[in-house]
Each structure stands twice: as C-alpha cells, then as structure tokens.
Specification:
8 helices, about 20% strand, two-stranded antiparallel ribbon, elongated, alpha+beta
C-alpha cells in the first residue's frame, strides 16, 4: 500500500463528527453549513509543555442536489480518461438514463486560531457557544492537523449519505425522478426551465446554459429558444 494512501486511511479513521448538523441537506435549495474543525497541532508530540488546539473555521455550501444520469456524468469536463471509462461502465451496467443524485459542494475556509487549551475543553466551549446561538447547521469535526482537509471530506461524505434517503423521497414524491420519452429526468427539464429564466434576467451566463443543454444532448431541441435570448437583447 502507498504511504500516502495509508496516511489518508488513518486520517479518515481518526476523524470524528463531534457535532453533526441537526438538519439534512435541503432537497430544493442551498444548504450553508458552518464548521469548526479542531485538531491537535502537528508539532504537539514534539512540544509537550503546554496543551494547544488548532481551530479551523469555514463554511461548506451544498448546492441543491440534482438528478443526473450516467450519460450526463460522461459529458462533464475535468475528469481523467480513467474516470470516463468508469462512466462508460455505469452506462453499460445501469443504462445511459438511470437516474442518480449529484451533489455539488464549495468549501469557504475562514479563520485559523491556535488556542492554549486541550481539545476536549475547546470542544466543550464551542458546543456551549453554538447552543447559545441555537444554530442547527453548525458542526464540530475532530480531525488530524496535517490532513485536515481529508477530515472535512469525510464530514461531507457522511452528511451526503445521511441526507440522501430524504432527498430522494422528496424528489420521488414530486415525480422528479421520472424519465420522459427522451430519456431525460423530469428534474433536469425543470432545472433547464429555471436556467432559461435566470439567463433572461441576466443572472446566468448563456454559455453555461449551453453547456448544460449539451451535457443532456438537448441543444438541438432548445436551439431556437436559446438563440431567441440574444434577439431579445438587441
């Protein structure tokens, strides 16, 4: 096993979600989660004269989950040839139009502080502060200092896994998991309509709308409507 792989395994193993969010990820909106990621300093084994704790603060912003298919995933940019082969495998195994949920996250790191106190005492103080604010979407994560971002990724994974059943149920109830005669999920059609409206209001780049249409193989179907946007701008 590669040394880096082993370090990542250890970081994941020693990551604890000490305070998970009290709400699932929103099915039809953006979820903004504030986190405190606490670690013992990497140098703590060398300097044992005083207890110190590193506190990293930030936000994980989860965009509204969207229904995708293996075909859609295969059209995304920025993936390696190996990843593309995996998407091809998904298409062969489940079909090009099998629906699944796709979550998009953005991490916005905040301030970093090193406090002179042991980790458990720091966590207790953070919990008290969060309780006073009554914020259901603030979390505390315990991780490893050198691979703290791995700990954050585990948090995101656990958050996604726990939210998935509820998100799927709500989408299924609204019929958004249904596939139309063109092999397109109803949710995708709804999202495309929303994108056309935001482009018309000048809140979304037309080029991004075209990319979304291309990912679904739908540009020809919407072509006249797409170019009509530019006629209105004149």
């Amino acid at each position: 096993m590669d040394i880096d792989d082993e370090r990542i395994r250890e970081a994941v193993k020693h990551t604890e979600i000490l305070r998970p969010p009290k709400r699932s990820l929103a099915t039809f909106g953006t979820t903004n989660i504030y986190y405190y990621l606490v670690t013992e300093p990497a140098y703590s084994e060398l300097v044992k004269s005083a207890a110190e704790t590193v506190i990293r603060e930030g936000r994980v912003i989860a965009e509204r989950p969207k229904i995708v298919t293996p075909f859609y995933l295969s059209q995304l940019e920025g993936f390696s040839s190996e990843a593309k082969k995996y998407f091809d495998t998904l298409i062969k195994t489940y079909g090009s139009n099998a629906p699944g949920l796709f979550y998009t996250y953005k991490n916005e790191p905040g301030q970093l502080n090193i406090v002179s106190d042991n980790l458990l005492a720091v966590v207790a103080k953070l919990n008290d502060d969060i309780d006073k604010r009554g914020d259901p979407l603030t979390s505390i994560i315990r991780g490893q200092d050198e691979l703290w971002d791995v700990s954050l990724m585990k948090f995101i994974y656990e958050m996604t896994r726990s939210s998935l059943p509820d998100n799927l149920l709500q989408m299924e109830t609204r019929g958004l998991l249904d596939i139309d005669s063109s092999g397109i999920p109803v949710d995708a059609r709804v999202r495309i309509e929303e994108l056309f409206k935001t482009v018309a209001r000048g809140e979304f780049e037309p080029s991004e709308l075209k990319k979304e249409l291309d990912r679904w193989g739908l540009f020809e179907e919407y072509e006249d409507r797409f170019f009509a946007i530019f006629k209105k701008e004149r």
